[in-house]
Structures are given as C-alpha cells and as structure tokens.
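Contributing new records

If you add data, match the layout below exactly. Sequence lines come first and carry their own label; structure lines follow with theirs. Keep one chain per record. Anything else will be rejected by the validation script.
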Amino acid sequence: MTYILRNQKAKMNMLLFLTFLLITAAVFSLAVGQHFVSLTSVYRAIFSFDQQSTRHLIIRSTRLSRTVIALAAGGSLAVAGALMQALTGNPLAAPGIFGLNSGAVFLLVIAATFFGVTSMELSIWLAFFGSMLAGLLVYFIASLGRSGLSSLKMILAGAAVTALFHSFTQGLLVINQESLESVLFWLSGSTAGRDLEMIMPLLSFILGAIILALILAKDINILLIGEEMAAGLGQKTIIIKLLLGLSIVILAGSSVAAAGAISFIGLVVPHISRFFVGNNYHWLIIYSFIIGAVLLLIADIAARIIIMPQEVPIGVMTAFMGAPFFVYIVRRGFKVNA
C-alpha cells in the first residue's frame, strides 16, 4: 500500500497530531458517561483537587481505570496485529488467529465451572495465562514436521486451536450454564468492572513487549524482504520469529486479560498506519499503538452513550467499525510487504 509521508519531518508532525488526538480522546473518556463531567472537573480530579466531590469519585474510581485499560488494550492489540502480519506475511492476520482469545475464555470457563472462580483479579491472570498457553500451543503445532516453522503452518495451527477451544468452551457452557454470566464479559469485551490496581501488573508486561518489538524493528524490516534473503544477510530468522511470537503473545494476552475478546483492532489499525509510514516498523509500531489506543477509546466512549443508561459491549462497537474495513482490505488485496 502506498504511503503518503515520505520524509521524517512529515512523519513526526503526523505523530504529534496523533498524540494530540490520543490526549483529547483520553480527556473525553474521563468526561463522558451517564454523568457528564466538565473539563475543569476532570483536571481537578486528575490532579487530586476537591477529593471529596462526587465528580472526583466518578473519575478516580471508574473512568480513569476504563481510560487506561482502553488505551493499553487498544495499543497492544494494534501492535500485536502489526507484528503478526509481518510474521505470517498475511495482511488479514490478527491476534485472534493465534487462538489467544479462545484460549483465555476456555481457561476462564474451566475455572468458573469446576472451581467456582468468580474473583475478577484472579480471572485477569487466568485470562493472561490462557492466552499464553494458546500461543505456545500454536507454536508447538506449527513447528511439527520436517519443514519446521512456517507462516502458513502458523495460520493453520492458529485456526485449528481457535476452533478446538471454541468447541470445548461451548460444550462446558452447555453443561454448566451458570458459568455463562461470569465469562460473558470476556466473550463480548469491556473496559468496565476493574480497579486500576488489578491491571497495573499487566502494564509492565505490555511495556516490555513494546520495547522488545521496537528492538526487533530493524530485523522485521529485513525479514519483510524475504526469509531467504534475510537468512542470506546473516539474520537468524528462527530466533527473530520466536521473539516476535513472544511479543505477540504477551501483547495479545495482556489485552484479552484487561478487556476481554475485542475484534478488528489488530487487523484494521496496522493497515491505517501503513498508509502513513509504509512498512518501516520503527515508525509502524509507534503509529499502530497510538492509533489503536485512539480507536478503542472512541469505541468505549460510543459504547457508553449510544444506549444510555445501558452500555453496548465494546467488542460490538469495534466490530461495527472494523467490519467494513475488513471487506475493503479483502477487495483491494493489500500486501504486508507492499
């Protein structure tokens, strides 16, 4: 896909503009809801003035955590999608293709069905490890055979693992329908219902995975010209792929643990970012994180107000936003290494 920003200054200016959009979306996320809070009140709440007011409690107890979760989950999913598309060479690759979402939900259903787990804090870590285990299983299956690890085998293994976990999950929910309510959040996706302290440990995982992706950016750029060419230039492609896979699993697993199964962000955002910066992953990772965070913040704000006082699941909003773009990608036939 042809990009329009061909010099560093233009890319930096666009990055500053996107950062401004991110800050604006975050402020509106703190202000908008069943009870609108003025921007002055947002400022006073964030900087701990007027701590006893109702507005302060609303912002600090609920909206701040929602804003941080949407920002972190949206950015993580977008970067994970960008890395997956580089790893598989498939422009339609997204975190869900590795079975990470289904692995997280499956482990949560097991915990709720057989052990009666209802703690949100424990569920977050179960979702994280369920995603990690699903990613490791995909890698193990894709590595079997004489030809070893390949992009096509990873896609097929991911599809197989996703279908397997979905089948097991549905079977367990039929047996014990009482557990459906406890995992409904993870199935539909949401940024509500968790304290900031619960997801703070996940933020360190996300930060580490983003740093790892940025360190690998140069190697990803080389890998995109072709695996044989990259190996001829001395790159240890297997190690690079394994590190990329580790970063993907951590980012996607953390986002599922924080906000449940959210679709299309990991698919759509990397293509939007490529429109501006092409396939230079030094820029693409940063652009993807910011744009992903902005889109999920906007989706979360819309989910709160569209049918007030009730809320639309945020996964529904992202699907509504992403499905038309998915069709557009399929029709245009974009390539990751274009």
